[in-house]
Amino acid sequence: MSSKYAGDISLPTRINLCYDNQHDLKYNEIDLRAFGDVLQRMGKFELAETIYHRLLDKVSSSDSSLARLYHSLGNTNKEKKNYDSRLKWYQNSLEVFLQTHTSAFINLENLYGSMGEGYSYKKNIHQSLDCYEKAIK
């Protein structure tokens, strides 16, 4: 497989599919979220968002992986230029992260920076600056 872009890397990917009645959810949730992230990077935003929403129905509100899932939804809405939804999902991610303090996948500075960027697009300079200040602390 050749690429027209210099520096592109092709990595083998293994995807385990399962039936809806299989209940090995923790393993499958991680794989599905990661698969959603891959779809997002491929520009398949609607499909990625569908996967993330399906996972939301299966993850408990006390699960620390919820912060990463919300963050992925924020990133998808960022790419789709849905600024209100983007900020809603990032805010949800921040709230879960601050409650659990266990999500190693979320870089708090990057999350605040992403929120600041979202507020900037909405012309909400005060909120944007507030988020950027939190990002650099």
From TrEMBL:
<dbReference type="InterPro" id="IPR011990">
    <property type="entry name" value="TPR-like_helical_dom_sf"/>
</dbReference>
<dbReference type="InterPro" id="IPR019734">
    <property type="entry name" value="TPR_rpt"/>
</dbReference>
<dbReference type="Pfam" id="PF13181">
    <property type="entry name" value="TPR_8"/>
</dbReference>
<protein>
    <submittedName>
        <fullName>Uncharacterized protein</fullName>
    </submittedName>
</protein>
